[in-house]
Amino acid sequence: MSGLVIKLAPGERLLINGAVVENGDRRSRLSILTPKANILRLRDALHPEQARTPVSRVCYIAQLVLSGDADVADARHQLLRGIEQLSQALRDDDSRAQLDAATQAIGAGDFYRALRRLRSLLPREARLLAAFAS
User: Fold this and answer.
1) Of 17, 27, 67, 93, which sits with the fewest C-beta atoms within 10 Å of its C-beta?
2) Could you tell me what percentage of the chain is helix, strand and coil, using 3-state DSSP and rounding each to the nearest 5?
3) Taking the CB of residue 23, how many other CB atoms lie within 10 A of it?
4) 13-16 and 28-32 beta bridge pairing
């Protein structure tokens, strides 16, 4: 079986193509077979007031596409522009690899994969901002 496999904790919620789905009382696994389905774990969702840093803002734009709250063409443009700006600050090899993978995912219309790659940069950004503030 191919596709995306999501493991859910009891009571965990996720958004699938605009519909909120809640897991029952037991752990479970969902196999998403529809290609390019828009999926967002609600526990991972950023709230608008949390999108205060450059990486979190770009993540939030990708999240808006997955929730159906943003026009794909506009969001694609904003995401690519944001990634280009991030590449000016995040110059290490791993960050560049994540940004490149996110760019490829956006080009392919896979905003879930782009969001995953961009979210992986949040801890690095937090360390850099903390070091800069000291």
Assistant:
1) 93
2) 55, 15, 30
3) 17
4) unpaired
